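Researcher: Sequence recovery benchmark, item below. Answer with residues only.
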């Protein structure tokens, strides 16, 4: 239930959260006028800190709101998030330590730095940077959807709910922008620890409390027996969703940014080997979308809401209907800042791309301090751009925001991942493959949605429904591999010489 204690606990914990964010400036002190110190924490994060920082991307507002919402609406298809998390860290252990070693040796801040250095191509680096920015913005916006859902749940029945919610979100983002600007990645890392502590406790409490009261998961599944198994028509969609999403995660700028913050490649690898622990919690979070069917009071409230908003309120409604008021405030704050912390990391990452890989190409004589200051301001700007972007797509289809970003970011896979293991890729083939992959991906999304608002990222195929990202990436890869086979490329001599011994 929501009562006065809910608001008191929520506000008190939010104040603590903001304080921790600003105190991050003093954590492992460094010269924050240097881009490496502000945006990468001085490359000084140990195993535990990287684990929390990268894990912040898993227990997010997206995790708590969009996936259970889709499970509630559609069923077993959206359990793809669990194997996706399990597989993505195997991919990370294969790619990220190698990219980290290159970044440390050559001073990279972004993946686009690697592309520019290896292929001696500023234009290809700019393409990768622009793609990262465009793909990341919907991911940040998705966190805002989760924040909106929490505030809507807390304010149900209040007058002017939209106005109050909007003001609250803006104030939260002002505070977020403040500590992001001041403390950079250090503030994000400390708040990630605080956030994950709240969320781990929330997941454990809800799963134990609700399942015990229901007598197990069977009671909830008996209400929706079709959710127990995956319909055969969704088999190809399920496989393509979890596999391509796993490939996409560590192509996102924020995941690379978090990986680059590690103290050394060994600590990075250790943190990645422990990250599947998050998958255990995620498996239960997805089931929140089923558990609610076994709670009559929660279902009654959901059915009374407009279809456009009921989906994203599944988890908040379940928590509010089953937990005491003070704990609702505790849990809601965990989900609320579960949107803010990843948003800050993502904003830092794409601000790096804009300043370092686009603006510096236009104005190469920009000084180190001005580069850092510019990056700080762009991080703030990107946070508020995402805040406005969220109103474009209906909240019920929030997950499609992330999947659209996934289709876009997947087109950088040949240039970032495959290029780590071969010097034979042709840079022109990479550029053409990227272009065709992007165009075909966006076109197929538009066709699948009949050129209207986004509601799906699945397309028809001979195998059944298929994630569009798989098709677009396959087209991209075919072009890159054929072009590189006919006209093999080569890494720049400076890069080859510079990574000797790495």
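Model:
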């Amino acid at each position: 239930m929501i009562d006065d204690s809910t608001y008191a606990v929520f506000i008190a914990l939010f104040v603590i959260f903001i304080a921790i964010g600003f105190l991050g400036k003093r954590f492992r002190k460094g010269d924050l006028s240097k881009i490496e110190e502000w945006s990468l924490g001085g490359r000084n994060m140990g195993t535990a800190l990287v684990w929390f920082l990268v894990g912040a991307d898993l227990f997010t507002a997206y995790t708590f709101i969009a996936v259970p919402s889709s499970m509630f609406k559609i069923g077993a298809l959206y359990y793809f998030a669990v194997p996706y998390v399990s597989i993505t860290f195997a991919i990370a252990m294969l790619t990220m330590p190698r990219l980290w070693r290159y970044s440390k040796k050559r001073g990279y801040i972004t993946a686009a730095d690697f592309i520019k250095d290896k292929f001696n191509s500023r234009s290809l680096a700019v393409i990768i940077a622009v793609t990262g920015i465009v793909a990341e913005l919907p991911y940040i916006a998705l966190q805002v959807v989760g924040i909106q859902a929490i505030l809507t749940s807390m304010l149900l029945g209040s007058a002017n709910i939209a106005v109050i919610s909007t003001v609250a979100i803006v104030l939260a983002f002002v505070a977020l922008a403040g500590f992001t600007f001041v403390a950079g990645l250090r503030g994000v890392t400390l708040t990630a620890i605080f956030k994950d502590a709240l969320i781990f406790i929330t997941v454990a409490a809800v799963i134990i409390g609700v399942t015990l009261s229901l007598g197990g998961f069977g009671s909830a599944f008996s209400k929706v027996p079709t959710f127990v198994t995956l319909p055969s028509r969704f088999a190809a969609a399920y496989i393509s969703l979890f596999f391509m999403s796993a490939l996409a995660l560590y192509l996102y700028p924020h995941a690379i940014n978090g990986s680059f913050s590690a103290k050394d490649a060994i600590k990075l690898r250790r943190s990645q080997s422990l990250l599947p622990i998050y998958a255990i919690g995620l498996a239960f979070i997805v089931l929140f979308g089923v558990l609610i069917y076994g709670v009559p009071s929660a279902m009654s409230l959901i059915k009374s809401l407009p279809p456009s908003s009921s989906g994203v309120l599944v988890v908040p409604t379940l928590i509010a209907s089953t937990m005491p008021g003070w704990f609702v405030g505790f849990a809601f704050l965990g989900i609320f800042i579960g949107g803010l912390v990843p948003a800050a990391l993502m904003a830092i990452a794409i601000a790096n791309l804009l300043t370092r890989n686009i603006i510096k190409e236009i104005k190469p004589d920009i000084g180190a301090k001005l580069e850092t200051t510019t990056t700080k301001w762009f991080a703030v700007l990107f946070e508020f751009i995402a805040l406005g972007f969220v109103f474009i797509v209906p909240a019920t289809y929030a997950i499609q925001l992330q999947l659209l970003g996934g289709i876009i970011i997947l087109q950088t896979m040949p240039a970032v991942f495959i290029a780590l293991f071969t010097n034979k890729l042709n840079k022109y083939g990479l550029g053409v493959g990227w272009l065709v992959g992007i165009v075909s991906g966006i076109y197929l999304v538009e066709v699948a949605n009949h050129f209207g608002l986004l509601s799906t990222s699945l397309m028809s195929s001979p195998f059944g429904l298929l994630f569009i990202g798989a098709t677009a990436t396959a087209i991209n890869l075919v072009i890159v591999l054929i072009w590189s086979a006919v006209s093999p490329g080569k890494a720049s001599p400076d890069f080859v010489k510079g990574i000797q011994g790495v």
